[in-house]
Amino acid sequence: MKKQSNYPLYEVTSFSSIKEMLLIAEKEAGSGIAFKYKDKSNNVIEATYKQFRTDTLSLGSALTALGLNSLHVSCVGDNSYPWVTAYLTMLGSTGVFVPIDKELPTEDIINVINHSDSEAIFYSGEYEKMLLNNLDLLPKIKVFIGFDRMEDSEDRRILSYKKLLKHGYSMLADGDTSYVEQKSDPHELKLLVYTSGTTGLSKGVMLSEHNLVSCVYYGLQVSTVYDICLSVLPYHHTYEAVCGLLVGLHMHATICINEKLRAVAANLQLYKPSYLYLVPAFTEVFYKKIWATAEKEKKDKALRMLIKTSNFLRKFRIDIRRKFFASIHLVFGGRLRKIVCGGAPIRPEIGEFFDAIGINLINGYGITECSPLVTANRDYFNNWNTTGVKLPCIDIKIDDINEDGIGEICVKGDTVMLGYYKNEAETERCMKDGWFYTGDYGYLNEKEQLVITGRKKNLIVLDNGKNVYPEEIENYIYSIPYVKEVIVKGLKDESGGEKALCAEVYLDDDELAEMKVLNPIETLKRDVTALLSKLPSYKRIQEFIVRSTEFSKTTSKKIKRSN
Q1: Rounded CA gap, 2 and 317, in Å?
Q2: pLDDT digits (tens, 9 = 90+) for 486-527
Q3: Are 226 and 362 in contact (CB under 8 A)?
């Protein structure tokens, strides 16, 4: 069984820079495999830690020769090995790396390039036409570096990544140390991440190398990782770029790059990972699919009985979960030990289920402005109702606490950003006396674990003065198998006050057909009413709207709320 009290932090090798981190990795695991990925012929390519570090030193040398090493350099494209080399190379330079959300519209990509003051850009092949068609809108860009280009352009404004890397190798072989010896102030801007690419709302989060190093070093003290990771989430998000890539590299794991979302199931079988970084929506899909399959094969009762038996045996320290649930483990490749979940709270029953079958589901809380990690549950101190304990390098306070003991989560310490790029007004609005005001509401429980109740901007204040966090109600409704998406909002009266709650829902037609539901709206009303019956009356749903289409979403697949 899980320990019910906290325990000593994990020991982690200290380092002061990303360059030092890679040097340590080469010394300790030089012949170990750092990355696995598929080429265009679907062959699996391996890169050792020695090769990866040499690739970054070579690329850095070539960039230095072109005078690009000290500039702001953007990168747009799918997850790939070249993307990672560009990222780590720039983190080791005197310049700034600007990852761009590859799913943004053209106008917003151009906006981020220009607002970030980028003077060079790495890109994958599918973006070449878009970029070259908009040269007149990108006056600051001196050099375009194509990951998939074989040749340089005649004027050498468009360069081949492969040729640039090859040139850097020659420079290193000739004894060039211009990049190897570069050092920058760890407290200056190093990673510039845009939380939104839209022209009016663009916010560039300024992170320093010290921020990133602190997140990796102290994050690993709280929650460790293992030998093989399937890297699924987009690299332009700090969650994957820092917690996925940098953490994996410092622990000398093998990072297997997932080339596209529809390849996840096949790549779980191919790479057989021991841990994954996911968002809750992924775990929800896995959870629902496992139960749907069990019900279809009429094995759901047997699965529930097996879980009950296994949990009983664990009370006597008899743990045979991997044997009992071997067929489920095979779906994940057979070696999966841990899923780290971030981006939103997870439903406790999903955490309980994965624990019951022998996979540790660890929920954490982070925000880009905190590099991104703030709290994480621990392997043997795990409460799925919380997002875990804080990193040792930060402090948390709850501000403006209401009658329910809930207030705004504020963070101070080594992972907190420098501010927003060229946006002093927004920086001053959310940074006060060193504290970053996250805009998230929550509280610390008696064991100092953080509980998130919802976003400040989503809070519904009813005309009776009661506060409702819609995310709490939505989590209940998401447990209904045929509910695919849901938003809870306030019902307004004539004077504009919010008098009650409304649930707007998008249903899963396939699941409804499988369950032989003849009247979806009436069934939904009955199921939601039963689910929420134990909650106070003001938290119950008075009105339902069933949508015919999915909600519109951000590029990180979060539903856009109309506030």
Answers
A1: 11
A2: 999 998 877 777 889 999 999 999 899 988 899 999 999 999
A3: no
Measuring CA to CA, which residue among 228, 210, 313, 321 is closest to residue 268? 228
If we measure between CA atoms, which residue out of 366, 454, 473 comes closest to residue 407?
454
Closest CA to 32 of 255, 273, 337, 333: 255
Distances (CA, A) of 357 to 224, 311, 392: 20, 9, 31
| pLDDT band at residue 416 under the 50/70/90 scheme | very high
- Model confidence pLDDT, tens digit, residues 6-50: 899 999 999 999 999 999 999 999 999 999 999 999 999 999 999
Determine which helix (DSSP H) or strand (DSSP E) holds 510, and give its type and residue range. Answer: helix 509-514
Strands 143-146 and 204-208: unpaired
* Side-by-side strand order, sheet with 143-146: 158-160, 143-146, 120-123, 72-76, 96-99, 189-194, 204-208, 419-420
- Long-range contacts formed by 10-13: CB under 8 A, 24+ apart: 10/220, 10/221, 10/222, 10/224, 11/221, 12/217, 12/220, 12/221, 12/250, 13/250
Q: Are 499 and 468 in contact (CB under 8 A)?
A: no
Cα–Cα distance, 237 to 101 (Å, whole number): 8
- The residue-averaged pLDDT of 314-338 equals 96
- Left (φ > 0), alpha (ψ -120 to 50) or beta: where does 233 sit? beta
Q: Give the model's pLDDT for residue 555.
A: 72
Q: How far apart are CA 59 and CA 69, in angstroms?
A: 10
∠ CA 184-185-186, nearest 5°, is: 105
CA 263 – CA 178 distance, rounded (Å): 40
Distance in angstroms (rounded) separating the CA atoms of residues 214 and 17:
10
Around Cβ 12, how many Cβ atoms within 10 Å? Answer: 16
